[in-house]
Amino acid sequence: MSSTEDRIKQIINDNLDLDREPNFDAKLVDSGVSSVDCVSFFKLVNDEYSLGLVAEQCRQFETLRDLVSFIDARG
């Protein structure tokens, strides 16, 4: 697991009530997280990594792995 995955996992565990380990390969829409919580999560990630993304751009990430790949590619 990359350090980005570790940090994203920690943000999820600290801020979302999943009751399970996050699946980085599952579609986010199937995660059972409300849209409000999803927006809050993306805001936290946006701030953590200074991504400069607006809410509409977060839809491009179908899975957490897509998000991690995007972050790692910027590094």
Helix content: 40-55%
**What is the CATH topology assignment?**
Non-ribosomal Peptide Synthetase Peptidyl Carrier Protein, Chain A
Overall geometry: globular
Spatial gap, N to C terminus = 16 Å
Count of β-strands:
0
| Mean pLDDT value | 89
The CATH homologous superfamily name equals ACP-like
Stretches with pLDDT under 50, minimum 5 residues: none
- Helix/strand structural class: mainly alpha
Strand fraction equals under 5%
Tell me the CATH architecture.
Orthogonal Bundle
Tally of separate helices? 3
Radius of gyration: 11 Å
Largest sheet: none
Number of domains: 1
CATH domain class: Mainly Alpha
Q: Helices and strands, in N-to-C order?
A: HHH
Architecture overview:
- It is a single chain.
- The chain has 75 residues and is mostly helical.
- It has one domain: Orthogonal Bundle (Non-ribosomal Peptide Synthetase Peptidyl Carrier Protein, Chain A).
- Helix content is 52%, strand content 0%.
- It has helices spanning 3-15, 35-49, 64-74.
- Helix 1 (3-15) crosses helix 2 (35-49).
- The longest helix is centred in the middle third of the chain and has 15 residues, at 35-49.
- The radius of gyration is 11 Å and the shape is globular.
- The protein starts with a helix and ends with a helix.
